[in-house]
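Anyone able to model this chain together with heme C?
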Amino acid sequence: MNLSKKVLYTIGFLVSVGLLFSVAGVSGSTPAEEEYDEDTYGPSELMVWNTPVPRVTFSHKVHTMDAGLDCDSCHDDLFEMESGAVVDKGDFTMQSFTDGNYCGACHDGDMAFSTDSPDMCSACHSAPNTIVFTKPVKAVIFDHKMHVEDMGFNCGDCHSDLFKMHIGSAEENPDAFIMEALYNGEYCGACHDGDSAFASDTRCTTCHIGVMGFDRLFGHGEKKGGH
Ligand code: HEC
Ligand code: HEC
Ligand code: HEC
Ligand code: HEC
Ligand code: HEC
Ligand code: HEC
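re: yes, here you go
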């Protein structure tokens, strides 16, 4: 009984999907994934760079199929046809884009949105949600999503003056990444000063989740440097 119900639901679902497809077909646009042809539009998988900062992506589909650009608007003048090749050039940076190179050849606020506009950073960059610091003390929680979406900060409010776009950068200097520095307006203390946000010498446990909080997040008894 249960099984046949499941089968019926499945068939019902397939039929509605089929209907959707045929309606889309009538209006002239079929679902993108079906139509995407790598020979015509370039690689379907996202290009991903992690140097100098992690989590930057580029979609061929957006540029060829959607924006209608030809291969030779980028290849090989701006980019070689080899994933990651540009990283070796050593100047694949925001400043270089502002000077009109690479992505900046088009992303100049004229032909396409500017690389300088604070609202657009996250179109190319993705931030990890929760970061947990464990040095010098375990453990302090920082929530990207909350600071960006709920509190309305832009990426540029923190990057790269207060923090590098690299988990672990601040912790590389455990002698500097300390409460004293926060009290002096560095790192989190640029905002957590009792003015823009609650002061760093109050509400300790809002930031400090402690060892138990860490274990709750990552599983009890996890060993550092384990798997
Ligand atoms: C808007 C710019 C742009 C356009 C237009 C474009 N590409 Fe690319 N393409 C890139 C970038 C950026 C890379 C990655 C280069 C790097 O990482 O050094 C790339 C990489 C590639 C690669 C290497 C993929 C790999 O995994 O090594 C191929 C193949 C490729 N493109 C084919 C095409 C084809 C075919 C077209 C036209 C249908 C096209 N590209 C149009 C920007 C573009
Ligand atoms: C040859 C011109 C050209 C180059 C080079 C180029 N873009 Fe674009 N890009 C466009 C155009 C045109 C659009 C669509 C119009 C717009 O969104 O402003 C676009 C759109 C985008 C989008 C928007 C996707 C969305 O959410 O709709 C992203 C992200 C993006 N480009 C990233 C990049 C990155 C990263 C690079 C460099 C690796 C790059 N582009 C290089 C022309 C270019
Ligand atoms: C059109 C896409 C695009 C937009 C928009 C963009 N970036 Fe980038 N960004 C890149 C690419 C591509 C790289 C180099 C690849 C990498 O680091 O993985 C990069 C590198 C960086 C770097 C490290 C290199 C450097 O120049 O210091 C920082 C920091 C950075 N971006 C911050 C930002 C901020 C802040 C914004 C918004 C104001 C922004 N980016 C908007 C594509 C973009
Ligand atoms: C309120 C401050 C703040 C804002 C706003 C912010 N970040 Fe971050 N971000 C951080 C901190 C703190 C780190 C960790 C730095 C460290 O460990 O030294 C970080 C790290 C990162 C990393 C490195 C991730 C990794 O895997 O190493 C990326 C990428 C990043 N941020 C992207 C973004 C983007 C994109 C935005 C805008 C949507 C943004 N950030 C907005 C504070 C911020
Ligand atoms: C660009 C400003 C800015 C920076 C930098 C910043 N914060 Fe915040 N943060 C805020 C604001 C604004 C709030 C919300 C206002 C308030 O609660 O006082 C907030 C709230 C929080 C909260 C409370 C969330 C909740 O549950 O209510 C925590 C925890 C937090 N921040 C941790 C950090 C840590 C850790 C850092 C440094 C790694 C940091 N913040 C850096 C502006 C910032
Ligand atoms: C806005 C967030 C925030 C608040 C509030 C906060 N801290 Fe911290 N604390 C941090 C960060 C970030 C670090 C450095 C990263 C780490 O040690 O994991 C740190 C590190 C520390 C350290 C080790 C470094 C040092 O200075 O000796 C101690 C001890 C500490 N905090 C105690 C406290 C106490 C006590 C309070 C409350 C009076 C407090 N913290 C409130 C964010 C905060």
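The domain at 36-124 is CATH 3.90.10.10 (Cytochrome C3).
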